[in-house]
Amino acid sequence: MQHIVSLLERQAKQQPQQVALKIWRDQAWQCFSWKDFSQQWTQVAKGLINLGHQPQQGVAIMSPNMPEWTIADLGILAARGCVVPIYPTNTVEQSQYIAEDANCKILFVGQQEQLEIGVQLLESGSIETIVCFETCLRPANTNILSWNEFLALGQNSDNTDLATRRQQIKMDDLATLIYTSGTTGEPKGVMLDHANFASAFAMHDQRLSVDSSDVSLSFLPLSHVFERAWTYYVLYRGASNIYLEDPAKIQEALPRSQATLMCSVPRLYEKIHSAILQKVSKASTGKQALFNWAMEIAEQALTLKQTQQQPNLVHKLQYRLANKLVLSKLRAIFGPAKLLPCSGAKLADDINHFFQCLNVPITYGYGMTESTATVSCYTEQHKCLGSIGQPLDGLQVRISEQGEILVKGPTVMRGYYNKPEATAETMVDGWLHTGDAGNLDAEGNLQLTERIKELMKTSGGKYIAPQRVEGALIREPLIEQVAIIADARHFVSALIVPAFEVLEQHAKQLGIKWQHRDELLENTEIKNLIQSRLKQVQANLARFEQVKKFTLLPREFCMKQGELTPTLKLRRAVIESRFAEQISAMYADPTRA
After folding, report:
1. 550-to-353, 502, 527, 528, 584 alpha-carbon distances in Å
2. How far apart are the C-alpha atoms of 578 and 310, rounded to whole Å?
3. β strands within 169-272, DSSP E
4. Arithmetic mean of pLDDT over the chain
5. Residue 44 buriedness (CB in 10 A; 0-12 / 13-18 / 19+)
6. Could you list the residue ranges that cross the membrane (predicted)?
C-alpha cells in the first residue's frame, strides 16, 4: 500500500504534460498539467509549514468544487496534515463547530460567501489564517492571504522540513476528518486514514476500468466522501478531473466536458427521466408510438443480456433501427460516458431499469462516509436490477438478526473524532453498524430496504419507510420534492413542493388565472389534479402507506434553511418544526386536501 501523495507523484512523473485538472472559467478552459498540479501542491505543503502547521493537525477547506480544492487537499496531505472539509453551504455555527472540534487554525475558502463566514471565524478566534482561492476576494487583513500570495509563501521556503515530514509519513496517519452532515444531532467527524484510501483503491481496481484516457466530471460536493474518494481514485489512475463550481449547471456541462466518468446521486437521473417522459407526453401520437416501440425493443435486449442469451437476426435489426432513431439520441444526453457511479440514496428500480435499457452505463452502488464510500456496486458484467450490487472483494458484509447491514474490512473508519460513545455504538466487535436494513440474496447481491433509524410508526402501530413512499411520489412529473409525515400520526400526510414549471403549464391548459404562486397552490382544480396523480403513483403502496392529505409548498426545501443535508437528504426534524402549522392543519381539518 502506498500513500496517495506518492501515487500521484508517480503519475506526475509519468505524464507531466498531460492535463490533470480542468475547469471552465471566463468562457474558456483553464487547465493544470500534472507538472503544474504537483508543483502547486508542493508549494501548498511548504506554505502550510511556513505558517506553523504541525504534523497531523487539521486544515479546513470550505469551497465549491474547483481545481484549487484538490491542490490544497494534496498539499495538506503532503505536509502530513489532516484535511477537514466544510460544506460551502454551511452556516457560521456549523462551520465554527467543525473548525474548533478539529482544531483547525488554517481555512481555505472558495468564494465570497465562504470568505464572509471565514472572517467571522477569524474574528471569533476559531481560526488564525484564511487563504482565498479566488484572488479578487482578499480584503485588507494580514491574516487573509490570496491564493497566489500563499503559493509564493511556499515557493520561497526551503524543502528541508517538507522532506522530513515525507519521511515520517505512516499509512495509519489520519488523512481526513469528514463531518457527517446528519439528519439529526450534531455532526460527527469520521476518521479515515491513508490505509483506508489505499485499500479502497485496490478494491476498486478489481471492479472498475479507469485509465489515463478517461475524463471525470466532478459536480457533487468535494466536501462529501463520494466525490472526494472518487476524485482521489480518478487521479490515482492517471485520468483528468473536470470541476463544476455550480452543480445546477450540470446539464450544460455534460456535453461541453465530454466526460467518460461521473459520479452522481439518484436525483439527477430522476429529473432526467421525468424530463424525458414529459417531453414524450407532449409529442405527436406517431413519435410516442415510436418511443414506446423503441423502449420495448430495448427491454428485450436487456433481458437477453441479463439471461446471457443471443438475439436472433430480426431482433438485431430491430435494435439497430431503434437505437438509430431513439435510443442513441437519449443516450447522447450523457455524452461519451462509459462509467457513471451512482449512490447516496435509493435509485428507484423502474428508473434504473429505464436507463439500463438505454445502455446508459450507470453503476449503482451503496456506501457510507464510515466505509470510505463504496461498500457494494454493480460489476461491469453483472448488474442485478433491484439490488445495490455485490460487496467489494476484501469486505465482509452480513445481515444482523434485526435485519441491519453490517460491514467489516480495511476501508472501515477508525471511529468518530472525540466521540468514543458514538464510536462504541456504531462499531461493535469490528463491525460497522450502518443503520440501513437489507438482505443478501443467494448470488451475493446486496439489497437495501430502508433506513432503520428513519422508520416511522403510526399511532395505529404500522411501520412506514418514508423513503419508499417518497420514492413513489417523486416519480410524478408534477412533484419536485416531498416530505412524508407519519410518526405517531393516525395516517400519512405529505408536504409537497410542486415542479412549478410543469404545474404552470398544466394551469394554462386548464385555463386557470393566477398572479402569484400562492394563488395557484390554493386553486381547487390544481389540488384535484395533484390528488388524482397521487392516486396513480401510489397504486403499488399498501393502504396504510398511502398519503391521505397533503399541503403544497411555495418554495423548495433547501440547504441554506437547514432543511436538506449537503447530499440532499431531508432533515425531517427541521422540516417538521418549520412547517408545524401546515402539518397541524392537515391533521386538524378533516376537509383539507
Report:
1. 29, 19, 9, 11, 11
2. 56
3. 174-180, 188-193, 215-218, 240-243
4. 92
5. buried
6. none
Angstrom distances, CA of residue 404 to CA of 1, 61, 446: 31, 34, 12
* Residue listed under C-alpha cell 466525490: 227
Kindly indicate the confidence band of residue 556, based on its pLDDT and cuts at 50, 70 and 90: very high
Distances (CA, A) of 215 to 14, 16, 18, 365: 17, 16, 12, 21
Q: Give the separation between CA 87 and CA 567, rounded to whole angstroms.
A: 10
Q: Looking up cell 484538490, which residue turns up? A: 70
Query: Within 10 Å of residue 523's Cβ, how many Cβ atoms?
Result: 17
Contact (CB, 8 A) for 134 and 120:
no
Q: What is the DSSP string of 5-57?
A: HHHHHHHHHH-TTSEEEEEEETTEEEEEEHHHHHHHHHHHHHHHHHTT--TT-
**Residue written as cell 439471461?**
307
Tell me the domains of the chain and their CATH numbers: 4-14+31-169 (3.40.50.980), 266-336+339-452 (3.40.50.12780), 455-588 (3.30.300.30)
**Structure confidence by residue, pLDDT tens digits, 287-337:** 999 999 999 999 999 999 888 899 999 999 999 999 999 999 999 999 999
Would you say the C-alpha torsion 501, 507, 511, 514 has a positive or negative sign? negative
Q: Could you give the C-alpha distances from 180 to 108, 152, 183, 187, 569, in angstroms and in order?
A: 19, 34, 9, 5, 12
Q: Which are the contacts of 173, defined by CB distance < 8 A and separation ≥ 6?
A: 56, 80, 82, 193, 194
Cα separation, 373 vs 263, in Å, equals: 12
Write out the DSSP string of 107-155: EEE-SHHHHHHHHHHHHHTS-SEEEESSGGG--S-TTEEEHHHHHHHHH
Amino acid symbol at 25: R
State the pTM of this model.
0.86
Does residue 419 contact residue 411 with C-beta atoms inside 8 Å? no
Residue 565 has what pLDDT?
80
> In the numeric block, which cell numbers belong to residue 389?
450490487
Distance, CA of 210 to CA of 394 (rounded, Å): 20
